[in-house]
Amino acid sequence: MATDSCDGCGRPVSVAGGIANVWTFGEDDGSDGTAMTLEFEDGTSHMLCYPCIGVLPDEPTSADVDRLEQVDGDTSRLEPR
Fold first, then answer.
1. pTM score > 0.85 for this model?
2. Which residues lie below 8 Å from residue 50, measured CB to CB, with a gap of 6+?
3. Who's near 39: CB < 8 A, 6+ residues apart?
4. Taking the domains of the chain in order of start, what are their residue ranges?
């Protein structure tokens, strides 16, 4: 499983899938990760951890991603405007 950092808060994340998981099956099939790449309506895409995804507004923009910060290992928040 590939690792990288969240575009929002910077925490290390694992990305599901990829070439490293081509020959794995069953419980370790590469379908579990701690991040997902989202494409926004403004044309930008961002790899975000699940805590950051959880605090984004319904119609997120890249400005919302810029406001994300890590609170602890399990939660994120948006900085005030």
1. no
2. 34, 35, 36
3. 45
4. 2-78
